């Protein structure tokens, strides 16, 4: 009787799951994946493995292709080739990872051409191949496109100057980490998603013990949203020139301090001398380089030199640049090209001119450049992100509305240090690690 009841309960559970599956999949896709998608895909992976690997030529015969029949040598294909050994598929956020042991003579490249077939057979969005251990490959499947509507998992551990701004196409979080790449270039045509990305970044940096500065020559229209959290906002070229000169002076003072304390960076300074990291956000950088009159030329020259100095000296001294623009071509002058070389982190949204994409990615990776040029009008917020180690990926920022950004900036306004004088005593609140 008890066994029958258990069977009925199990059947009811399965029916409920199947009944609610379409709704779950639409609204709570991570829950759907854990409860239904993952187990069903595991069964599919197991059931199709032998046939797939045989059809794709990845299963190999353990018996020789020749045998002796009486006094004759007979050649042929052995009947049951052995598929490469499949490990236990491990659940991951929105996908699964499974390790495969290679047969002797096989290399990861043999599996590369099979990835497309695996994607179809397992009915997943993508399958990627990694090989971290000799003799093994890992097949990593993603159930759906993580860039469709990025939801960033809750982060327990936060680090200063590190901002989770979206998701990467392989399902990992997209991090803009100024400690890893000290300066960033973000380009994109109008309505491509630049401001949304900057808003996502400021939302993450706002609770941290970081001084934020803004330079926005479009009358401060974009960055004034975060004005409560900014230590200073320059909205004209004269203000920008003054602010940059002051920041260069601050950087030089830090350099002096590090030298006298025998430290190689502000992070090596003793806590009582520690200086607060600075992030300078420049929106629409082309405006800084435009020249109409002779006087402009001197001002542009000074701005260009100071930006370059900050980019060259700032990394170890906790002064970081985030340069954003619609059009950032070499036609803006040699200062821009020299500055670009110092901006290790790159983000390229959809762009309307080839020169800007070339400026953002051309010197890093030609495939990344081609991928950026394929981003369509409908893919707002999608970008190619790359750094100088040549790695690049498609990514999409979290959709942070101007209102959300304004509210966050207001909430953490008390963390905006007065300028000048960014010395930090003991941090009392905010992330400062
Ligand atoms: N990550 C995203 N997810 C969903 N929608 C997005 C995303 N990023 C941007 N969008 C949409 O695209 C619109 C334009 O984005 P945004 O204002 O960031 O573009 P922009 O490149 O800064 O444009 P402009 O240079 O004209 O200011 C936003 O209003 C939003 O609706």
Sum up the structure in keywords.
single chain, 433 residues, alpha/beta, Threonyl-tRNA Synthetase, Chain A, domain 2, 2 domains, 10-stranded mixed beta sheet, 17 strands, disordered C terminus
Give a concise summary.
The chain has 2 domains: 13-60 and 80-142, Threonyl-tRNA Synthetase, Chain A, domain 2, CATH 3.30.980; 162-415, Rossmann fold (3-Layer(aba) Sandwich).
Instruction: Determine the strand fraction and express it as a percent band.
Output: 15-25%
What are the bound molecules?
A: adenosine-5'-triphosphate
Mean pLDDT figure = 88
CATH fold assignment of the largest domain = Rossmann fold
Strand order of the largest sheet: 9-8-17-16-15-10-14-13-11-12
Largest sheet: 10 strands, mixed
Number of strands: 17
Low-confidence stretches: 423-433
CATH class of the largest domain: Alpha Beta
Please report the number of helical segments: 12
Supply Rg: 27 Å
Structural class: alpha/beta
Walk me through what this model shows.
InterPro entries: AAA+_ATPase, FtsK/SpoIIIE/SftA, FtsK_dom, P-loop_NTPase. The chain crosses the membrane at residues 30-47. This is Cell division protein FtsK. Residues 170-358 form the FtsK domain. The chain is of the alpha/beta class. The protein has two domains: 13-60 and 80-142, Threonyl-tRNA Synthetase, Chain A, domain 2; 162-415, Rossmann fold (3-Layer(aba) Sandwich). The protein has helices spanning 2-27, 29-55, 108-112, 115-122, 194-205, 237-261, 286-289, 294-317, 334-342, 354-362, 366-373, 402-411, and strands spanning 66-69, 72-75, 85-86, 90-92, 95-101, 126-130, 136-142, 162-168, 173-177, 184-187, 211-216, 230-234, 278-283, 319-325, 345-348, 382-386, 392-397. The protein has a ten-stranded mixed beta sheet with strand order 9-8-17-16-15-10-14-13-11-12. Strands 3, 4, 5, 6 and 7 form a five-stranded antiparallel beta sheet that branches. The chain has a two-stranded antiparallel ribbon with strand order 1-2. Helix 5 packs parallel to helix 12, helix 6 (237-261) runs parallel beside helix 8 and helix 10 (354-362) packs antiparallel against helix 11. The chain starts with a helix and ends in a 22-residue tail after the last helix. It binds adenosine-5'-triphosphate (ATP). Adenosine-5'-triphosphate (ATP) is lined by residues 188, 190-196, 326, 380-381, 396-397, 399.
């Amino acid at each position: 009787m008890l066994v029958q009841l258990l069977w009925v309960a199990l059947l009811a559970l399965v029916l409920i799951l199947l009944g609610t599956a379409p709704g779950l999949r639409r609204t709570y896709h991570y829950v759907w994946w854990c409860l239904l998608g993952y187990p069903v895909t595991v069964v599919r992976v197991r059931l199709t493995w032998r046939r797939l690997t045989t059809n794709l030529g990845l299963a190999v015969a353990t018996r020789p292709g020749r045998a002796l029949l009486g006094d004759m040598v007979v050649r042929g294909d052995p009947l049951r080739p052995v598929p490469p050994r499949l490990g236990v598929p491990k659940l991951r956020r929105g996908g699964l990872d499974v390790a495969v042991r290679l047969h002797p003579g096989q290399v990861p490249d043999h599996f590369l051409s099979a990835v497309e077939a695996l994607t179809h057979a397992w009915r997943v969005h993508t399958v990627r191949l990694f090989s971290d251990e000799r003799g093994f490959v890992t097949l990593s499947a993603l159930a759906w496109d993580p860039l469709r509507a990025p939801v960033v998992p809750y982060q327990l551990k936060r680090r200063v100057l590190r901002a989770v701004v979206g998701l990467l196409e392989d399902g990992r979080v997209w991090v803009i980490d100024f400690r890893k790449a000290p300066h960033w270039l973000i380009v994109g045509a109008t309505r491509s998603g630049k401001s949304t990305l900057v808003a996502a970044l400021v939302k993450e940096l706002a609770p941290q013990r970081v001084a934020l500065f803004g330079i926005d020559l479009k009358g401060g229209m974009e960055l004034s949203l975060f004005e409560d959290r900014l230590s200073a906002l320059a909205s004209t070229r004269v203000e920008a020139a003054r602010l940059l000169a002051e920041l260069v002076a601050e950087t030089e003072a830090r350099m002096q301090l590090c030298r006298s304390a025998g430290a190689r960076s502000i992070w090596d300074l003793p806590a009582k001398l520690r200086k607060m990291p600075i992030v300078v956000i420049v929106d629409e950088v082309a405006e800084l380089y435009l020249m109409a009159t002779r006087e402009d030329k001197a001002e542009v020259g000074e701005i260009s030199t100071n930006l370059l100095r900050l980019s060259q000296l700032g990394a170890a001294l906790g002064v970081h640049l985030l340069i954003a623009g619609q059009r950032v071509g070499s036609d803006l002058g040699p200062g821009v090209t020299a500055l670009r070389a110092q901006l290790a982190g790159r983000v390229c949204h959809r762009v309307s001119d080839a020169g800007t994409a070339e400026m953002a990615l051309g010197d890093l990776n030609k495939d990344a450049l081609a991928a950026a040029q394929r981003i369509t009008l409908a893919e707002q917020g999608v970008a190619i992100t790359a750094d100088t180690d040549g790695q690049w990926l498609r990514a999409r920022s979290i959709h942070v509305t101007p209102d959300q950004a304004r509210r966050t900036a207001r909430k953490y306004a008390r963390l905006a240090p007065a300028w000048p004088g960014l010395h930090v005593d003991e941090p009392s609140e905010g992330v400062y690690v």
